[in-house]
Design goal:
homohexamer; Alpha-Beta Plaits; alpha+beta
């Protein structure tokens, strides 16, 4: 709570300046976060991704690698994120008729949660799909990027469905 | 066009393998791309951002810096993107009652377009806002990330409204 | 002590070659370092920074973000620095008539101190201010970059004033 | 000139927000910048650096490599710096009784100057010397970081002595 | 030629210090380099890579992405390498009974050659294969990393077979 | 073991997709890895490296710094490598008549081994030597990159000689 009793932005100090908040008094616990997003595209683009096993493998394989690497660089991209050691990452794709759904799961054993790592992994995997398909369809939309689930840490379990 | 007369994914070679396509025969021309996205949030989170000039300044100022820096790292994040020298970047925010709209504009004088740079800038600016507001609202959604406009280069002008 | 009984440069091995020294037998303890520096400039440049709340906010906000991010990249910049997980960073500015004073504080819970992280944060924040003001004053000087205080670790507390 | 007739911070737009300014209309010309700084230290630290050819070679060799690499990463460290292709870098050291003087020279053939690259190279070389000598002397001061000379570009030659 | 009439290491100046040599007087021409290497492994490891289309696709797809990204980071890894804009990269694998042969081709239109980019791409692709197969075979050897061909630039064409 | 009873590639999940495997249930123990490789070159190149103490110092000093820094960036280069905190790195060179032998030793106190860090350090040190000597000899070969020794962790000690 801040002075006026309202919610507070913990990344800003009392004077409203950005700082990286102190997490050193938090305990190291196993933490997990799952994020998801969706890339909407023309049927033509979706079927180009699906067109043959090898090609499909490669488009999504490249996006998967990009997402995993982005998870590791999260603290380098998001200014006030704490650096942390990721212990596991996996990224799943679900290719539909006019979209690709992406889910990224990240686990760690640290003092802060990994929701930013999961969201960043989803986001960069989606941008990679966009990049690889933009010669066919420039009108793609990346949407619905959300945190699906977060477990571990003092604040307990968060689930979007609740 | 590929062998079967369908559209082709230029990032995949004839065997379906990823490669970075040859752009060296393209001309260096002035190119510009504008991308946009939106961060939907609770009224509480939006008003925390807006709560006082200094605080508002700082949240969006941090997101703006993060977006500009991300534009410069696009080729490092997106595996098959060509490296290029960005000549100008600007990021604008429009704070609404329950969302922040983000628009990123990137310009260059290179052989390839800068749509990935503009999309990446939007995306990382949005993730930064999420990171700074997640202590208030974990249910935020980042959505509607699209290319709004693209000018320059052989393929001519693209505008989402057309 | 080295062979001749003089002080030794621990980053060089017995043959005088650079190596990253072994810190694995040190204990993980809470460690903190504070560094400071100063950017001297013309009155014109200092008043341009101070000219209006929004503008002032933005110059120093950008420098603050740059300094925080640099703290996280210290081991990537300084060859023999150990990588470590930063737990907290804050950067304060004091705008005077012809200078900006910068203080950076970094905390961790690791096997090595964070003086290089604090010094690097100060240094990059100062360079960012230089970059943003150089259109007005090319004659700025960045000076007096020193370690102000260091606590934690086996070597005990260091304070510049002692 | 800005509205009030005073000097302007070109990194801030009309609304006072940070942006990366458009340099695309500038011409590519050969540009050079030289920066310098000084690391003040105890006689003990200075003589440890000088103590034997091999050791001296290594301390300054490591600092030289760090400075050259930092010059290449300038746009990644300083948020509003334009990326550019460096064509030449050299770093010279002058070891005195109680200090090391550092001079860094950077050349390019681009649309913007390389003063930030030269200043960043000096700064990181100095931090590296600090890191390698801090086991002997924690009271070192890095100072007098300035632009010595800048040639090329529309604004003509700048020399600190003028 | 140096003073003693012998060959010279152009990355060292007259005093034997490292510097990044001046390439600004060289012309921008189309340049290409091809490098190759080989990862020797047990039959068991080679057949695990080949075991099923999907799995094979993924191991080599990950290595391909890693190699392409490494090509873009060459100047960040190799201290005296000039930064340059890569225009095309492709990496081919040839899976044999007890080895994987890797060939990387890089093209650019710059003032310096791209042999380091091609060699770095091969090297990181090979390390990625090692990483992905080390649970089966720790005794793999990465060998025969060489420049196969280099075209463009003042020094003319180099071919290993000559 | 996988379904068919053969060895498994732990970096691929049940569906053959790449993921970063979960190491969080492993214990943090002291781990060490030593890797080696060799750069074969003409006598002319080898004697240019050896030609005078200062020059020799600098070539190998630059390669040593490059190798140490590469060890710290391993997880950024190799897509499925876990990030970890390196506790010690040293790189030794053995200059022979027509080759340089490189050995890199890395130690940590983490949940995964550091063989990739040691191999990456060797590899980048070798590439740096190649870069610095290629003006004399383009026909150099980097070979025999292997893991020499690995200790710590559940799988026990590995030694190439066994």
């Amino acid at each position: 709570m801040n002075e006026t009793g309202g919610p507070e932005l913990t990344h800003l100090d009392a004077a409203g300046h950005a700082h990286m908040v102190d997490v050193l008094s938090k305990e190291k616990t196993r933490r997990r976060a799952v994020a998801q997003c969706s890339v909407s595209m023309s049927e033509q683009a979706a079927s180009a991704i699906a067109n043959g096993d090898v090609v499909k493998g490669d488009v999504l394989a490249v996006a998967r690698v990009a997402g995993i690497q982005a998870a590791k660089r999260t603290a380098d991209l998001i200014p006030l994120c704490h650096p942390l050691m990721i212990g596991a990452v996996s990224i799943e794709f679900d290719l539909e008729e006019r979209s690709v759904r992406i889910a990224a799961s990240v686990e760690t054993l640290e003092r802060t949660g990994v929701e930013m790592e999961a969201l960043t992994a989803c986001s960069v995997a989606a941008l990679t799909i966009y990049d690889m398909c933009k010669s066919i369809d420039k009108g793609m939309t990346i949407g619905e990027l959300t945190l699906l689930e977060k477990t571990g840490g003092k604040s307990g379990t968060y689930s979007r469905d609740e």
